[in-house]
């Protein structure tokens, strides 16, 4: 049984007087007979408009079976819903708590919606858990009223809400239901019925109005007459004017009685419906929308859906005072302008707050950036100070003091620069001192980092340049030493005496040319004969060697055949022994079997067969032993033959080795004789050749010396052999002093060649980026050059200096000084510029942060 079908007096709801302590808020139920008319959207927008005008507004979602009013506020950029329907209790939770005798304050069920500097409160249909639908379906409304005094509870709830809020807007369930009766009968002061242009909606709304008014007459509490505000929805007068006009006549005929109750006498239903309706705007039919917050045009244009909501809000605000709504368009325009002005003022305040936050944020970012730059500079300063102080606490403390003073002074200068020059001289002086100290220490640290190691870059380029110079100087020194040695050889007394002796040999050879020619011819004949004799002997030895190798091969074949035959006999021996062993095993088995049979008490035919088998096997053993004996004799004979042939082959090997040695010896002797024959000088041209060799020697071709000595000795021997000169009177062809000097010259030349091959500029290992390797390369080149003296000592000292700079413990500032003022390394200047730039950036960032434009608000709050 619904509330309309049952008088309220039947429920245990006590009578009470109406409180008139102060002006109470109004409760407005938005009802539609069917869904899809825009009821919830109208309620949400009207509530927001009332809140924008500064009223305290509460929205109640009483559509328990199809909740969702919160969707108009969730996830919208124009407003913010604080709280969640998933965890916050609502209407159904209040009723359930009442039925279960639990205390649940309705105020704890409120969610807050904030927008445009305003806010409204909202109570949802209920906590949206998985059990929500089950809880709604299980509600027994009859038991609620009869057993749990829900009527008095709702009355108390109604009064408390009206005490706290100016407007309570209820989103009612559609159709005719118990829940709808609560929303249309018990709770509201005003009933806003929303309907579209069809008879079902009109008749449904008429019926609910009738039921509500009849039910309110039976309430045990005092209620004023329920005022009804009929509101046509989805009006399409702009596109279908004639049809819309026809339906307005239908609205007038159906709702003129309700309007008559509160419209002034000079106005009728036609006046009302010509002004009050909600137009159909397709764009706003998608999703849950708040046009009055989403578009300013909605508050300026009287034909918009927002203007209709504004008219409804104005009518509700004035408690259905139609005189205030007579000039609805003008009033709506003024009201819209006021709301828009308020919204713009709020937007301006929001922009101002955002701007101030941006300014503060920019200042904070600049401050953080300045601190970060100070930290970056401080890291370099601290690292540089560690070169002077091994105590990290001392270095860290000094660094912190310098960087903190640098940052503070920068910010102070940036904040006070407008006070004049006299006010910032001291601060500027402090800033420059701190910046100088910071740059001084951080430059060395930055250069070490940029240059990839302690002095590697500068030392690498410097030592490479020094090693190039050293190589050039060493090459020049070796060339000068070679030239001096050659000049000393040619101009020495030993050479002059040697040339005199050689000239004497040449002159005597030319004088005795006939004698030495004959002697030379005889010597060649003798050598030729000796060569021929040795060749015959060599051929004979090779023949003997061939015969021995042939015999050796034959004997080897015989030996291989005998060994193969012996191996066959050995296999037969093994086979015979295995056969004998097998037969003996058979004999033993037969013997055991025979003895077993005999012991059993009978040895008849079986024993005879066993005896025959034993006899047969014994004969087999005898035959096998005989065969084994013959094989052993043959194997011994073959083994003896193998030993004899092996000794024969061994003697062949010894003889062949001796003949090979003789062949090699004869071949070497023949080669020597041929060389002597080929080198035997022709007596006619030998003197002139010797004179040419001496001339080449004087031209510093010292390789001609050995050839000249050989030629000279040959001529000297011919002179002595031909009796053209005695051995004692013959001049000497060699001079030991010259040989020593040439050896020294060649040693210098060899050192130069080794130096040139291994110490070219292209061989400097600069690609390794290892300074010490380049230094060591220079030292190796110094050692290979083998030059002594002060110059060599100076070059080695230069390399030692570079080695110390390149060492891991090289002092940073020594390296930096060398880089800046000696080598002028670009990376060193870059490190210096970077250190200066970091400290300058600290001041620039501090200046920007301290001088962010400060805008002060000149706007007053708009009420």
From TrEMBL:
<feature type="transmembrane region" description="Helical">
    <location>
        <begin position="394"/>
        <end position="414"/>
    </location>
</feature>
<dbReference type="InterPro" id="IPR050678">
    <property type="entry name" value="DNA_Partitioning_ATPase"/>
</dbReference>
<keyword id="KW-0812">Transmembrane</keyword>
<dbReference type="Pfam" id="PF13614">
    <property type="entry name" value="AAA_31"/>
</dbReference>
<dbReference type="InterPro" id="IPR027417">
    <property type="entry name" value="P-loop_NTPase"/>
</dbReference>
<feature type="transmembrane region" description="Helical">
    <location>
        <begin position="360"/>
        <end position="382"/>
    </location>
</feature>
<dbReference type="InterPro" id="IPR025669">
    <property type="entry name" value="AAA_dom"/>
</dbReference>
<feature type="domain" description="AAA">
    <location>
        <begin position="29"/>
        <end position="218"/>
    </location>
</feature>
<keyword id="KW-1133">Transmembrane helix</keyword>
<feature type="transmembrane region" description="Helical">
    <location>
        <begin position="827"/>
        <end position="850"/>
    </location>
</feature>
<feature type="transmembrane region" description="Helical">
    <location>
        <begin position="421"/>
        <end position="441"/>
    </location>
</feature>
<protein>
    <submittedName>
        <fullName>Putative ATP/GTP-binding protein</fullName>
    </submittedName>
</protein>
<keyword id="KW-0472">Membrane</keyword>
């Amino acid at each position: 049984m619904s509330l309309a079908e049952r008088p309220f007096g039947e429920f245990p709801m006590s009578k009470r007087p109406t409180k008139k302590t102060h002006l109470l808020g109004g409760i407005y139920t938005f009802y539609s007979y069917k869904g899809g008319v825009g009821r919830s959207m109208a309620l949400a927008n009207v509530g927001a408009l009332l809140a924008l005008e500064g009223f305290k507004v509460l929205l109640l979602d009483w559509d328990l079976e199809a909740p969702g009013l919160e969707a108009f506020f969730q996830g919208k950029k124009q407003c913010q819903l604080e709280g969640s329907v998933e965890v916050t209790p609502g209407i159904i939770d209040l009723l359930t708590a009442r039925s279960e005798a639990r205390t649940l304050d309705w105020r704890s069920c409120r969610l807050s919606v904030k927008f445009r500097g305003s806010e409204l409160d909202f109570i949802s249909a209920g906590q949206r858990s998985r059990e929500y639908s089950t809880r709604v379906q299980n509600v027994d409304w009859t038991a609620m009223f009869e057993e749990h005094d829900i009527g008095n509870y709702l009355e108390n709830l109604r009064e408390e809400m009206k005490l706290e809020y100016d407007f309570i807007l209820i989103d009612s369930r559609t159709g005719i239901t118990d829940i709808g009766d609560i929303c249309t009968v018990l709770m509201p002061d005003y009933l806003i019925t929303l309907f579209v242009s069809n008879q079902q909606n009109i008749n449904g709304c008429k019926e609910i109005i009738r039921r509500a008014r009849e039910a309110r007459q039976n309430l045990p509490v005092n209620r004023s007459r329920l005022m009804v505000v009929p509101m046509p929805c989805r009006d399409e007068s702009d596109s279908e004017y004639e049809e819309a006009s026809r339906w307005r006549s239908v609205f007038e005929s159906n709702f003129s009685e309700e309007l008559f109750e509160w419209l002034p006498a000079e106005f009728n239903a036609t006046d009302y419906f010509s002004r009050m309706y909600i137009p159909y705007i397709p764009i706003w039919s998608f999703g849950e929308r708040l046009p009055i917050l989403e578009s300013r045009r909605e508050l300026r244009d009287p034909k918009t859906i927002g203007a209709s909501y504004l008219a409804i809000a104005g009518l509700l605000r004035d408690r259905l005072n139609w005189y205030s709504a007579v000039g609805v368009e003008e009033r709506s325009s003024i009201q819209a302008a006021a709301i828009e002005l308020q919204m713009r003022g709020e937007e301006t305040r929001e922009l101002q707050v955002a701007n101030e936050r941006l300014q503060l944020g920019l200042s904070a970012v600049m401050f953080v950036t300045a601190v970060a730059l100070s930290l970056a500079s401080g890291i370099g300063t601290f690292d540089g100070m560690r070169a002077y102080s091994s105590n990290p606490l001392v270095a860290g403390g000094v660094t912190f003091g310098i960087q903190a003073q640098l940052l503070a002074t920068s910010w102070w200068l940036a904040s006070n620069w407008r006070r004049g020059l006299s006010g910032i001289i001291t601060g500027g002086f402090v800033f420059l001192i701190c910046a100088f100290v910071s740059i001084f220490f951080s430059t060395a640290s930055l250069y070490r980092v940029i240059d990839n190691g302690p002095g590697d870059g500068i030392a690498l380029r410097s030592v490479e340049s020094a090693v190039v110079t050293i190589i050039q100087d060493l090459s020049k020194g070796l060339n000068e030493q070679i030239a001096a040695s050659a000049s000393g050889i040619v101009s020495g007394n030993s050479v002059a005496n040697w040339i005199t002796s050689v000239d004497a040999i040449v002159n005597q050879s030319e004088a005795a040319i006939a004698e030495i020619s004959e002697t030379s011819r005889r010597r060649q004949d003798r050598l030729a004969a000796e060569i021929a004799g040795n060749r015959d002997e060599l051929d004979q030895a090779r023949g003997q060697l061939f015969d021995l190798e042939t015999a050796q091969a034959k004997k080897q074949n015989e030996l291989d055949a005998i060994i193969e035959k012996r191996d066959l006999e050995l296999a037969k021996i093994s086979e015979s022994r295995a056969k004998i062993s097998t037969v003996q095993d058979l004999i033993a088995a037969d013997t055991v079997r025979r003895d077993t049979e005999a012991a059993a008490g009978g040895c008849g035919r079986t024993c005879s067969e066993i005896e025959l088998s034993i006899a047969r096997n014994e004969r087999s053993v005898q035959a096998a032993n005989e065969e084994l004996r013959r094989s052993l004799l043959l194997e011994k004979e073959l083994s003896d033959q193998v030993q004899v042939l092996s000794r024969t082959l061994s003697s062949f090997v010894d003889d062949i080795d001796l003949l090979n040695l003789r062949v090699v010896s004869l071949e070497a002797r023949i080669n020597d004789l041929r060389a002597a024959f080929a080198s035997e000088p022709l007596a006619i041209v030998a003197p002139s050749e010797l004179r040419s060799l001496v001339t080449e020697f004087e031209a510093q071709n010292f390789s001609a010396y050995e050839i000249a000595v050989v030629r000279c000795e040959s001529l000297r021997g011919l002179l002595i052999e031909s009796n053209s000169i005695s051995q004692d009177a013959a001049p000497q062809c060699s001079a030991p002093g010259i040989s020593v000097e040439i050896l020294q010259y060649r040693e210098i030349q060899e050192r130069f060649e080794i130096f040139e091959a291994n110490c070219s500029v292209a061989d400097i290992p600069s690609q390794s980026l290892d300074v010490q390797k380049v230094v060591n390369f220079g030292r190796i080149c110094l050692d290979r050059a083998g030059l002594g003296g002060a110059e060599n000592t100076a070059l080695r000292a230069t390399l030692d200096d570079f080695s110390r700079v390149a060492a891991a413990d090289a002092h940073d500032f020594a390296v930096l000084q060398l880089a800046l003022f000696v080598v002028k390394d670009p990376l060193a200047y870059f490190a210096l510029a970077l250190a200066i730039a970091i400290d300058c950036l600290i001041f620039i960032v501090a200046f920007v942060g301290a001088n962010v434009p400060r805008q002060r608000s000149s706007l007053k709050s708009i009420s």
